[in-house]
Amino acid sequence: MKPVLFNIGPVSIFSYGVVLTLSLFLSLFIMWKLYKNNLAFLRFRVTLDAFFDSILIFLISFGIGARVLHIIEHWDSFGMHPLLWVLFLHFPGFSFLGGVIGGFLGLWSFCKAGKLPFFLLLDVVAVGLSFALGLSRLGSMLNGDSFGKEING
């Protein structure tokens, strides 16, 4: 376990943040390669701009959905205080399931509005999301989150 990789003056660089950033960029690279090598995108006339717009919409919707479901799950902590909903640093928390639901709905609405092939884009996003999830688990281990309670016996 190594939660803090190094310090630059008063700024601490956390291992989980580095791994999350790395997983985001590597999953974007994988999705771009899948787009580039899939002729179905040419057949459905999905441009590179439309593809990256759909990925951006998915990521934004993922973040919003993750926060909304976390607020719903912990309503007793947040209540009807909208300021607490947006203060991520002081009241942290996201829900992966909420992110998947939010990203799915955001991608579906974007594809419907732009007449893009939803399931083709969903296939590419699913591969990138799976890779990012697997890599982020390594960040959780470095942070010390993925360990259970010690038992004797």
End-to-end C-alpha gap: 24 Å
Shape: globular
Helical fraction equals: 55-70%
Reading the helices and strands in chain order gives EEHHHHHHH
Write down the Rg.
18 Å
Which ranges are low-confidence, i.e. pLDDT below 50, for 5 or more consecutive residues?
none
Class inferred from helices and paired strands: mainly alpha
Mean pLDDT score? 86
Strand content: 5-15%
Please outline the major beta sheet. Answer: 2 strands, antiparallel
Number of strands: 2
Task: Please count the helical segments.
Answer: 7
Give the neighbour order of strands across the main sheet.
1-2
What does this structure look like?
This protein has helices at 15-36, 39-43, 48-73, 75-78, 82-86, 96-114, 118-143; strands at 4-8, 11-14. The two termini are 24 Å apart. It contains seven helices and two strands, in the order ββααααααα. Strand 1 (4-8) and strand 2 (11-14) form a beta hairpin. The model has no long low-confidence stretch (mean pLDDT 86). The relative contact order is 0.19. By secondary structure, the chain is mainly alpha-helical. It is globular and about 55 Å long. Helix 1 (15-36) packs antiparallel against helix 7 and helix 3 (48-73) runs antiparallel to helix 6 (96-114). The protein has a two-stranded antiparallel sheet.
